[in-house]
Structures are given as structure tokens and as C-alpha cells.
Specification:
Blueprint (H helix, E strand, L loop, with lengths): L13 E5 L9 H15 L3 E5 L10 H23 L4 E5 L4 H6 L8 E5 L19 H22 L2 E4 L2 H9 L8 E3 L6 H4 L14 E5 L8 H14 L4 E5 L5 H12 L3 E4 L4 H9 L3 E4 L8 H9 L2 E5 L3 H5 L7 E3 L4 H13 L3 H12 L5 H20 L1 H4 L1
Parallel strand pairs: 1-2, 1-3, 3-4, 4-5, 5-6, 7-8, 7-10, 8-9, 10-11, 11-12
Helix pairs in contact: 1-14, 7-12, 10-13
Amino acid sequence: MDAHAPPAHRKQMKILHVSNYYPERNTGAAGTIMALGEAMRTAGNSVNLSWRNRPLSRWGHNFSRFFEIPARQLEQAQAELAKEQYDAVIVHQPHGWQIFQKLAPRHPSCVFINFSHGWEMCVPKFKPETRSLVRPLKDAVATHYIRRHCDRAARLADGMVVLNRLDADYLIQRHRLQAEKVCLLTLGLDPWLLNGPGRPAAVAGQPARFLYIGNYVAQKNCAMMESALVELARENSTFTFTCVTHDDKHAGLKARLGPILGERLTVLGWSPREQLAELMRRHDYLLFPSAYEGFGKVAHEAMASGLAVVGTRCGVLADHATDGVEALLSLPGDRAKFLAHLRRAAANPGLANTLGAQAREKVKGDTWGATAHTFYGFIERLRATKLFPKTAS
């Protein structure tokens, strides 16, 4: 029996999630929504997931997220609330702030919550890869609308859910939210990860096997990882590196690293998560060089698999790992420390056994039942505050 199952006296809630993602389990945000929805249903609640129902226009990413997505999410929520009443409406990302402004007053018995998969005001700004005379203007406009949407979502929502301490502190300090309105949620891990076989112990003398799984975008700081690997390769001719990323990045990766690593480089496309877990068990260290993470599911799943992580203090690693205990960690952007950790890992594959075992022990309680329990409790407290303010206070 799940230790986090709600007691019998708890009210069964009707919960609506509104997002502008497609329901794809192997993607980050959509996979989180699906897993959380299933966990809440298992705990006895009624959960409706409203997804993107048609493609976005081709007018550009910024046009879509600042104008089209807000209208789409409002349309989705209006359609669902016209059919039935809910105890809680969960709006994913801040671009759905119009739901809080226009629909919350019409549904006073319902709590409206913004669920962030990474608070955009906390994401570092990066220099563009290509120079353009209009790029500074486009960046300024984007920053304006990001700040506008975040400010309105934080101000208008009944509560906020975030997945890392940095975002939670930002909401409390910069948006001046009461701590009671902010829920810091640790995502769950699937049973096949928690209960499956861990990574086999590294054998003394075998070359270190490094693995990267993720997008190749500025936020992931892959350029720092590549430059550190190139420098390491000048000193160590035995380690291997496997990179799992989008197909359109493969040619560039092979052109940059192939001449240096040769057959020690393997580049793969996306696979179902179960297959990626098996890939983790065939490596010693996951490389996680990110400048910022909303949570960092790959690092979390690596810890559950017993795969040691060489990474940066952001997302789940900042909140749930200690340098030298469950992972080798440096500050985001600290290339010298990241390279030093790579050298240490390459020289000692056996260190992965100790770090991986301690990491697996650290996250063994991160079940989806525990996540649902925390999430339910947050909704319950917000409802008590909204419906019975004097009693709640």
C-alpha cells in the first residue's frame, strides 16, 4: 500500500489541467502532467487533462507564446468549465494568465493555480548564436512580454507550483508572494526506475563512460561541456562519450568532436524512456552542464538508476544532491570546476559506484504517490484559505 495514499476523510477533488503541450509521455513537461494526473487519479481524484488541440501558427515562437498560446489556453479552460465545475484548475506556464483574470471571478469556489516547469524570469540570458541588427530589439520585446506574463500569473493566481528552490525563492522575494501561496514540488520517479536493477558496478581499470541526454540549446550549456571534453581528450585517450539528442544536431556534433574522439564518440537520437534507462545502466557518469533547469528529470532519473552525475548546481541537483556525496557538482558556468570533475571522474570510474549508490539511496522516496500527496495538500490548503478565510487564518 502507498504510504502517501490520502486518508479516507479527504475529499475527492475534480481537477482540470490546462496546457499547450501535445500529450507525449516521453517529453519533459507533458510527461510530468500525465504522470501527476495518473498519481492523482490513483489517490481517488477526478483529473481532466486538456491538451493542445491544433498546431500553432508559423508566425514565430515568440508570437505563439505571447499572443497565441494565452488565447488558446483561455479557450481550452472556457470550454471545459462550461461543461462542469472543478475544485482546482491548474494552468501550465505563465502564458495562461488570462484564465486567472477572466475565469477565476466567475468560479469563486474553484482555486486557480499556475504550474511552472521553469520560471522564465530565472532563466539566464544568453548571447545569440547569430548576429543581427534586429536581434536586440526582438530580445527586448521578448523580455517585456515574459516579465508581463510572469508578473500577471504570479499576481492573479491563487497559488504557484514550482519545481526548484531558486524559482520558489524568486516568487517569494521578487514577486512578494506569501510562502503559503508557493508549493515547491519534487517530481516522482516511475516504479520501474525505483525498483529496477541499478547500474552494474564499474570494473577497476575500465575506461570511464560518459553520457549526455538532452536538448542542444544555450540553456543546457553544451558548448562548455564540449570544450571541457576536448581538453580532457588531450590528456586521456581512453574515455568514451555518448550523446543522445535531436537528429538535427548530430552532424554538427560529429564534425566538432569526431576528429578528436574518433570511435569513442557515439551519437544517438531520442528513444523511449525505458530504453534510455537501460542506456544509463551501461555508462558510469551522466554529464549535466546546464546553466538553468526547471527541474532536471534526466538527472533525477540518473540518480534513481545509480548513475553518477557530473553536473551543475541547478534544478534537482541543487536541491537534492551534495557535491562529492551524491554527485560531482560545480556552479553553473564554472568551466574550470566542471573540467576538474571530469578529470577526476575519468581517472576513477570506480568513484561512480559510490556516488551512484548514494544518489539512488537519496531519491528512493521520490514516488509519484508522494508527489500527489504534497500536491493534494497544497490544493486543499488553498481551497480552505479561499473558501473559509477566517477559519484558515
